[in-house]
Amino acid sequence: MMKRIAVDLAAMGKAARGASRELAKLTTDQKNAALQAIADEIEAQAEMVLAQNALDIEDGRAKGLSDALLDRLLLTEKRMAGLAADTRNVATLSDPVGAEIEGRVLPNGIRLSRRRTPIGVLGVIYEARPNVTIDIATLSLKTGNAVILRGGSETLRSNLALVQVIQTALANQRIPRDAVQYIANPDRALVTELLHLDAYVDMIIPRGGAGLHKLCREQSTIPVITGGLGICHLYVEPGADVEGALNVIENSKVQRPSVCNALDTLLVHVDIASSFLPKLAARLNPHGVKFYADGPAFTILYTQEKTTVIEARPEDFDQEWLSLTLSVRLVDNLDEAITHIQTHGTGHSDGILTNDWKHATRFVNEIDSAAVFVNASTRFNDGGQFGLGAEVAVSTQKLHARGPMGLEALTTYKWVVYGDMHVRA
Amino acid sequence: MMKRIAVDLAAMGKAARGASRELAKLTTDQKNAALQAIADEIEAQAEMVLAQNALDIEDGRAKGLSDALLDRLLLTEKRMAGLAADTRNVATLSDPVGAEIEGRVLPNGIRLSRRRTPIGVLGVIYEARPNVTIDIATLSLKTGNAVILRGGSETLRSNLALVQVIQTALANQRIPRDAVQYIANPDRALVTELLHLDAYVDMIIPRGGAGLHKLCREQSTIPVITGGLGICHLYVEPGADVEGALNVIENSKVQRPSVCNALDTLLVHVDIASSFLPKLAARLNPHGVKFYADGPAFTILYTQEKTTVIEARPEDFDQEWLSLTLSVRLVDNLDEAITHIQTHGTGHSDGILTNDWKHATRFVNEIDSAAVFVNASTRFNDGGQFGLGAEVAVSTQKLHARGPMGLEALTTYKWVVYGDMHVRA
Description:
2 copies of one chain form a homodimer. Helix content of chain A is 41%, strand content 21%. In chain A, helix 2 runs antiparallel to helix 5 and helix 6 runs parallel beside helix 7. Chain A is of the alpha/beta class. The relative contact order of chain A is 0.12. A 7-stranded parallel β-sheet of chain A has the order 10-9-11-8-7-12-13, sandwiched between helices. The longest helix of chain A is centred in the N-terminal third of the chain and has 17 residues. Strand 13 of chain A pairs parallel with strand 16 of chain B, so a sheet runs across the interface.
């Protein structure tokens, strides 16, 4: 067990605010030079970081963490090289800060513009994955924001080592170390305290499960980007290309079942159920997919070979499975499919598989989700896939940013007014 | 005293969500027709509304409300005509919903776009001004949002009458009445309940003083647009056109001293203090401006004729005056002015009066306020003045919207993905 370190969050906040003012003055070249310096330092201090990570892994093993979780915590020489490469990649991204979003000369001669600026100070709370420390710190730096980090306690030593690496590189570049700070005490009360630090922190980004997002929504006096829960749907109807539909469903469900944009519920038009469901079972059985099917679908799936199917209770359609499980329900028409998604969805990723122009249009217009799909896998709801260059988080709320958040989501704007001693009439 | 009406906020929220889905399907033409119908109905039912307003005014007078407040509550035939005209004006504004913010074909052939959509359900809490009821309801309708309104208790009857007018017009246009609902019970506990209605409400907009904004920030589990507090600064330095600077200061301070973008603190470079402050006193004295001046400024202002000046305590520089009062402080240089604004400002409206290019540039880059001014009055920080067509609120937070919020701030976007049975590699 590590000795707990006393943390003065208000002092950290104040220091972060001060650092953010220095960051806001940096040119893109200066920020990119700092990112290169961080990448170099990650390589130079890899041994130190790996030694600290080994202690985290040792503790984790002693605590009986699962192999899957331990693998998420683990850093290796190869992974350290990956972190350095990721950091250099952030340097290559285009800098959104300084862009003039709109500008014009008003009728009275005033020149008005909206200029993109850093947000200021970010607070980021995340799961036990040391790569997120580098990821968030570098994206914050690129956009001129100071950041206060709070990662999962299982990687405390690794995170502190990585933050030390970053701070060393920053100091060498004459950028305030306080631009990237870490809450070095696993006490959960500090999370609540961070959520109330509205005097210094401008935005909270939780990265983790639904429970963390709920805590932030309920406790924070600072604007929060929430997300974290994706009950995702596909609706397949007569006329859809069957082979294509099976490909999309398979990809949505099995390509990476543990993530939020993986498929949870398949809605099948009743008219194609008897032909489509056997093909679905044949396609998904080899992956070990388990079905929770409503009565009529259960009756069909139950007779298929090598198929694991359980009759669904109503609450099974409110499940985000995060595993190789799929709810299946038959619907009579598009209206019923839309109503099901409106009732059970979380506004994350929902799609239709169809060859009907009118139905596709209605689905896109009426389904109010962060990403709406026609004839494509829900797995595309991702910053990388959407070409954003980086993904800070995925938002399912509707303010500020929705869906995958790129660098722009870490910026705000200010109105800039140039006059010639203008007064308001 | 009116009998208190039982309010089922969850039922209102659910109804609002249902209505919002219908609103999202309306075309711009249909929404504009509804706005015209509301304007017609305002005219047709003016007598009924005025009768209800008269009862509010009678109650208000009995409670001993000030004449200024009573005037804010009062509706007249002329003001009713104004409300109808304002509603017709909203119909003429361009509809932001449906715009494609960005769109492209990805390398894999998927067509991706971001489409502007309504936010869904808004919750708006506002002061006792019946015109705000029409204002917010029509702007919400224009952007396809349902809204739950909660106005000041002093205008409960007037607001209920106006909402009845709106609902009648909506029903005549076959739009759900629940698109615009009003919390018809002045119990304050309902405000707190509204702030926790995250199952149905997507965004809270408080319109009122700093106390209301603080309550919302602390209590709400729904994203809130906060603002409401503006400690505004101007910094005047050597080389600035003196006559122009006096015009801008006078306009910023006295044109409408009770509002949030009015000037609160003037920072004067020490080198021009002895010449500038006497001119300032001569300019502002006829308006009855009272000064709170720091030591060196006090010494100069104290000797001016007909000048009311009090020696400022440190806390006087943290005051939003909302009256004909002005804090004055001398500073040695631009750095000291910037530091003062960073320490005492609220990020609302701050400006520099100068003829120095480098100083203007530094001020604009380093002052992180919603609106930053060079040689112009702080009073320009306003949706109308900035050409937004409408002003929903003024935000001093940095997420979603900053500064004056136009119709766009009442929208979000969704990602729309059109594929040809694409799967993620």
